[in-house]
Amino acid sequence: MGADRPKQFLELLGEPVLLHTLRRFAEVALRVEQLVVVLPADQFAVWQQLCAQHQIRIPHAVVAGGETRWASVRKGLAALPRQPHALVAVHDGVRPLASAEIIERAFTAAETYKAVVVAVTPKDSVRNLAQRGSYALNRARLRLVQTPQCFDLDLLRRAYQLPELPAFTDDASVVEDLCPIHIVEGDYRNLKITTPEDLIVAEALLRSLR
């Protein structure tokens, strides 16, 4: 991003990206009983200042993350109470456009399948790099994975008791040896803020929703 602050604190229509993300889940109050924000410990003061500045009243806990995303998710899980038949959604703090429909869809599917990701079909042609050149892949059989990723809480906790995987890319990667991963339809608007261009697109999309 090349910004002067972490991506989750960049302004999106005058508010921090992370506030928009938090609000998406607070709006699904019938589904979400507890919100946990995982941040590096040295960012706590910045977030507290932003909460005061923007009068953020959404109830949430703040937990110190670890050295890796894997370690951070594990610490976030540790902050949740143990209760039977609970579901948990893990979401990127810099995906501020996850709609209530997507969140509901993920939770509803997780009630049946226990491990769910939202994903979209690639729009562009996809090629795999080979030792000599490259070859085309059938994009109809490929999916671009988004978040939230929703799981049976006990299942995800068991998965995170296993050693950290070198090939870990998301929570589904941790769980897939214990349970098949079910895919539900995502949304191309559910973008992850990664580059300056993403901020421009996200602002335009947010304006269209107002």
Provide a compact summary of the structure.
The chain is built from 7 helices and 10 strands. The chain has helices spanning 17-26, 44-53, 69-78, 100-113, 153-159, 171-175, 196-209, and strands spanning 11-12, 15-16, 36-39, 61-64, 87-90, 115-120, 126-129, 134-137, 144-152, 182-185.
Q: How would you explain this protein's 3D organization?
A:
The protein is an alpha/beta fold. The protein has a single domain, classed as Spore Coat Polysaccharide Biosynthesis Protein SpsA, Chain A (Alpha-Beta Complex), CATH 3.90.550. Helix content is 33%, strand content 20%. It contains 7 helices and 10 strands. The chain has a 4-stranded mixed beta sheet with strand order 5-9-6-10. Strands 1-2 form a two-stranded antiparallel sheet. The chain is globular. The two termini are 26 Å apart. The model has no long low-confidence stretch (mean pLDDT 94).
Itemize the secondary structure elements and their pairings.
Elements lengths: L10 E2 L2 E2 H10 L9 E4 L4 H10 L7 E4 L4 H10 L8 E4 L9 H14 L1 E6 L5 E4 L4 E4 L6 E9 H7 L11 H5 L6 E4 L10 H14 L1
Parallel strand pairs: 3-4, 6-10
Antiparallel strand pairs: 1-2, 5-9, 6-9, 7-8
Keywords: Isoprene biosynthesis, Nucleotidyltransferase, Transferase
Protein name: 2-C-methyl-D-erythritol 4-phosphate cytidylyltransferase
GO molecular function, one term: nucleotidyltransferase activity
